[in-house]
Amino acid sequence: MLTNLKSRTLALARSANAERALFAISFAESSFFPLPPDLLLGPMAAAEPSKWLRYALTCTVASVLGGLLGYAIGMFLMDSLGGAILNFFGYAGERRAELEALYAEWGAWVIFIKGLTPIPFKLVTIVSGALAYPLHWFVLASIVTRGGRFLLVAWIFQRFGPAIAPMIEKRLGIVLLVVALVIVAAILALRFAH
What we know:
This protein has 10 helices and no strands. The protein is an all-alpha fold. It has one domain. The longest helix is centred in the last third of the chain and has 29 residues. The radius of gyration is 16 Å and the shape is globular.
Protein backbone atom coordinates (compact mmCIF):
# COMPACT_ATOMS: atom_id res chain seq x y z
CA MET A 1 0.00 0.00 0.00
CA LEU A 2 2.76 2.50 0.92
CA THR A 3 4.66 1.71 -2.30
CA ASN A 4 1.60 2.59 -4.38
CA LEU A 5 1.01 5.73 -2.31
CA LYS A 6 4.67 6.73 -2.74
CA SER A 7 4.44 6.27 -6.55
CA ARG A 8 1.30 8.39 -6.71
CA THR A 9 2.88 11.06 -4.49
CA LEU A 10 6.00 11.21 -6.69
CA ALA A 11 3.78 11.60 -9.76
CA LEU A 12 2.27 14.72 -8.21
CA ALA A 13 5.67 16.44 -8.44
CA ARG A 14 5.28 16.49 -12.21
CA SER A 15 1.64 17.60 -12.26
CA ALA A 16 0.18 21.04 -12.87
CA ASN A 17 -0.99 21.05 -9.24
CA ALA A 18 2.43 20.19 -7.80
CA GLU A 19 2.68 23.21 -5.49
CA ARG A 20 -0.82 22.69 -4.09
CA ALA A 21 -0.04 19.01 -3.59
CA LEU A 22 3.21 19.97 -1.82
CA PHE A 23 1.26 22.20 0.57
CA ALA A 24 -1.41 19.54 1.20
CA ILE A 25 1.08 16.73 1.82
CA SER A 26 3.27 18.93 4.04
CA PHE A 27 0.21 19.84 6.07
CA ALA A 28 -1.09 16.27 6.32
CA GLU A 29 2.31 14.73 7.12
CA SER A 30 2.56 16.77 10.30
CA SER A 31 -0.61 15.26 11.72
CA PHE A 32 -1.54 11.96 10.05
CA PHE A 33 -0.17 11.26 6.53
CA PRO A 34 2.51 8.53 6.38
CA LEU A 35 4.83 9.94 3.67
CA PRO A 36 7.16 12.94 4.03
CA PRO A 37 6.81 16.00 1.76
CA ASP A 38 10.47 15.59 0.78
CA LEU A 39 9.23 13.14 -1.88
CA LEU A 40 7.71 16.11 -3.71
CA LEU A 41 10.00 18.88 -2.53
CA GLY A 42 13.22 17.37 -3.88
CA PRO A 43 12.02 16.66 -7.43
CA MET A 44 10.21 19.99 -7.62
CA ALA A 45 13.31 21.94 -6.54
CA ALA A 46 15.41 19.98 -9.05
CA ALA A 47 12.92 20.60 -11.87
CA GLU A 48 12.61 24.34 -11.16
CA PRO A 49 15.77 25.44 -9.32
CA SER A 50 14.75 29.11 -9.31
CA LYS A 51 11.75 28.22 -7.10
CA TRP A 52 13.59 26.11 -4.51
CA LEU A 53 13.21 28.72 -1.74
CA ARG A 54 9.53 29.22 -2.47
CA TYR A 55 8.94 25.46 -2.33
CA ALA A 56 10.85 25.14 0.94
CA LEU A 57 8.83 27.97 2.49
CA THR A 58 5.58 26.43 1.25
CA CYS A 59 6.59 23.17 2.92
CA THR A 60 7.50 24.95 6.14
CA VAL A 61 4.29 26.96 6.45
CA ALA A 62 2.10 23.97 5.63
CA SER A 63 4.04 21.70 7.99
CA VAL A 64 3.71 24.11 10.92
CA LEU A 65 -0.02 24.55 10.23
CA GLY A 66 -0.40 20.77 10.01
CA GLY A 67 1.57 20.52 13.23
CA LEU A 68 -1.08 22.68 14.90
CA LEU A 69 -3.69 20.15 13.76
CA GLY A 70 -1.56 17.36 15.23
CA TYR A 71 -1.24 19.36 18.44
CA ALA A 72 -5.04 19.73 18.59
CA ILE A 73 -5.49 16.00 17.94
CA GLY A 74 -3.19 15.25 20.87
CA MET A 75 -4.82 17.80 23.14
CA PHE A 76 -8.47 17.03 22.41
CA LEU A 77 -8.60 13.59 20.78
CA MET A 78 -5.71 11.66 22.31
CA ASP A 79 -7.86 8.81 23.62
CA SER A 80 -9.36 8.18 20.19
CA LEU A 81 -7.73 9.56 17.03
CA GLY A 82 -4.37 10.55 18.57
CA GLY A 83 -3.87 7.11 20.10
CA ALA A 84 -4.87 5.41 16.84
CA ILE A 85 -2.31 7.44 14.85
CA LEU A 86 0.46 6.70 17.36
CA ASN A 87 -0.48 3.00 17.28
CA PHE A 88 -0.37 2.98 13.46
CA PHE A 89 3.22 4.25 13.57
CA GLY A 90 4.25 1.67 16.14
CA TYR A 91 4.05 3.82 19.27
CA ALA A 92 1.65 1.83 21.42
CA GLY A 93 1.90 0.86 25.06
CA GLU A 94 5.43 0.95 26.46
CA ARG A 95 6.93 2.61 23.38
CA ARG A 96 4.38 5.42 23.60
CA ALA A 97 5.12 5.87 27.33
CA GLU A 98 8.86 6.10 26.54
CA LEU A 99 8.20 8.78 23.90
CA GLU A 100 6.02 10.75 26.31
CA ALA A 101 8.64 10.49 29.09
CA LEU A 102 11.41 11.59 26.73
CA TYR A 103 9.28 14.47 25.59
CA ALA A 104 8.29 15.50 29.11
CA GLU A 105 11.97 15.69 30.07
CA TRP A 106 13.49 17.26 26.96
CA GLY A 107 10.57 19.15 25.33
CA ALA A 108 11.87 21.51 22.63
CA TRP A 109 14.96 19.37 22.03
CA VAL A 110 12.70 16.49 20.98
CA ILE A 111 10.94 18.82 18.52
CA PHE A 112 14.30 19.99 17.12
CA ILE A 113 15.77 16.52 16.69
CA LYS A 114 12.68 14.69 15.49
CA GLY A 115 11.60 17.60 13.27
CA LEU A 116 14.83 17.31 11.29
CA THR A 117 15.00 13.54 11.05
CA PRO A 118 12.85 11.16 9.02
CA ILE A 119 11.06 10.07 12.22
CA PRO A 120 7.40 10.98 11.59
CA PHE A 121 6.86 14.53 12.83
CA LYS A 122 3.23 13.73 13.61
CA LEU A 123 4.43 11.77 16.64
CA VAL A 124 5.91 14.97 18.07
CA THR A 125 2.92 17.14 17.21
CA ILE A 126 0.38 14.78 18.75
CA VAL A 127 2.42 14.15 21.92
CA SER A 128 3.02 17.92 22.24
CA GLY A 129 -0.72 18.47 22.39
CA ALA A 130 -1.34 15.50 24.68
CA LEU A 131 1.24 16.82 27.17
CA ALA A 132 0.01 20.43 26.77
CA TYR A 133 3.50 21.59 25.82
CA PRO A 134 3.47 25.44 25.65
CA LEU A 135 2.01 26.29 22.25
CA HIS A 136 4.30 29.26 21.53
CA TRP A 137 7.44 27.13 22.11
CA PHE A 138 5.97 24.33 20.02
CA VAL A 139 5.31 26.70 17.09
CA LEU A 140 8.74 28.36 17.35
CA ALA A 141 10.59 25.04 17.53
CA SER A 142 8.51 23.68 14.62
CA ILE A 143 9.31 26.69 12.43
CA VAL A 144 13.04 26.39 13.12
CA THR A 145 13.33 22.64 12.71
CA ARG A 146 10.96 22.13 9.79
CA GLY A 147 12.25 25.24 8.02
CA GLY A 148 15.83 24.05 8.43
CA ARG A 149 15.03 20.62 7.09
CA PHE A 150 13.05 21.79 4.07
CA LEU A 151 15.53 24.53 3.18
CA LEU A 152 18.35 21.98 3.24
CA VAL A 153 16.49 19.43 1.11
CA ALA A 154 15.34 22.01 -1.47
CA TRP A 155 18.78 23.62 -1.67
CA ILE A 156 20.52 20.25 -2.19
CA PHE A 157 18.13 19.26 -4.97
CA GLN A 158 18.27 22.63 -6.76
CA ARG A 159 22.06 22.58 -6.50
CA PHE A 160 22.76 18.99 -7.55
CA GLY A 161 19.64 18.08 -9.52
CA PRO A 162 17.67 14.84 -9.63
CA ALA A 163 20.82 12.69 -9.87
CA ILE A 164 21.33 13.24 -6.13
CA ALA A 165 17.97 11.62 -5.28
CA PRO A 166 19.15 8.01 -4.78
CA MET A 167 21.99 9.11 -2.50
CA ILE A 168 19.75 11.46 -0.52
CA GLU A 169 17.05 8.81 -0.16
CA LYS A 170 19.57 6.43 1.39
CA ARG A 171 21.35 8.98 3.59
CA LEU A 172 18.87 11.78 4.29
CA GLY A 173 18.25 10.56 7.83
CA ILE A 174 21.95 10.58 8.67
CA VAL A 175 22.50 14.00 7.07
CA LEU A 176 19.56 15.52 8.93
CA LEU A 177 20.61 13.93 12.21
CA VAL A 178 24.09 15.43 11.83
CA VAL A 179 22.53 18.83 11.05
CA ALA A 180 20.34 18.50 14.16
CA LEU A 181 23.33 17.66 16.33
CA VAL A 182 25.27 20.64 14.94
CA ILE A 183 22.33 22.95 15.72
CA VAL A 184 22.02 21.57 19.25
CA ALA A 185 25.79 21.90 19.80
CA ALA A 186 25.76 25.49 18.51
CA ILE A 187 22.84 26.43 20.78
CA LEU A 188 24.53 24.84 23.79
CA ALA A 189 27.83 26.56 22.96
CA LEU A 190 26.11 29.94 22.72
CA ARG A 191 24.19 29.33 25.93
CA PHE A 192 27.26 28.39 27.95
CA ALA A 193 29.43 31.11 26.37
CA HIS A 194 27.43 33.82 28.14
